[in-house]
Amino acid sequence: MFAVIKTGGKQYKVAENDVIDIEKLDAEEGANIAFDTVLAVGNKVGTPTVAGATVTGEVVSQFRDKKVIIFKKKRRKNYRRKNGHRQHLTRVRITGITGA
């Protein structure tokens, strides 16, 4: 069985024992978390969410993603800007899906 959850402004299709990287959550490693914003469970699609459905997971690690380089340039104007960004992420293992 799979579910579609929404967290961090993004949607993720997950199944049990999946490991996903999501936007940073304030939780320690090894902590259990529950996602209540479940958009779909199996063939049941919510309007907009499935009532009573939850997805539980365990925090595996907190880390930062690879660096993304932002480079802006305007030709013939001697305008160049180089910037970098590393996003904070949380790695979560999905432990259970309960659908109403």
TrEMBL record:
Single GO biological process annotation from the record: translation
Oxidoreductase is among the record's keywords: no
SUPFAM superfamilies: L21p-like (SSF141091)
Family label: Belongs to the bacterial ribosomal protein bL21 family.
Protein name: Large ribosomal subunit protein bL21
Molecular function terms from GO: rRNA binding; structural constituent of ribosome
HAMAP family in the cross-refs: Ribosomal_bL21
Subunit structure: Part of the 50S ribosomal subunit. Contacts protein L20.
Native species: Phaeovibrio sulfidiphilus
Keyword RNA-binding among record annotations: yes
GO cellular component: cytoplasm; ribonucleoprotein complex; ribosome
Job description of the protein: This protein binds to 23S rRNA in the presence of protein L20.
Keywords on record: Ribonucleoprotein, Ribosomal protein, RNA-binding, rRNA-binding
